[in-house]
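Q: Structure tokens for this one, please.
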Amino acid sequence: MSQWFNTDRPISLDDLAGEVVVIEAFQMLCPGCVSHGLPQAQRIASTFAGEVTVLGLHTVFEHHEAMRPVSLEAFLHEYRIGFPVGVDTADDTGPLTGDPAPVANTTRDAPAAGS
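A: Here is the predicted structure, written as tokens:
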């Protein structure tokens, strides 16, 4: 995470060991996230307070210039998102990093009929 909101310290997986955790991955300009995903996460946080930890993961896959931390901070305030939200770390290499796993060409690699 490059930054956290609604918490006074970064949250790690070790902090959550043994807890039930719901992670809402969203983008603030995603209509479905705003109208469905985030309200559902808020309902879970309020209904199961003390039993379930709800975390937000703001992940930007488009409109990077509009998705600055100052914009997200205003969005979280405006929509009254109170659970901790981490900002996915940007990567200059694109959406996928590292070497992709090889994929077998099932047509070419499949045994011939009758073999």
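A few notes: Confidence is low (pLDDT under 50) at residues 95-110. The chain has three helices and four strands.
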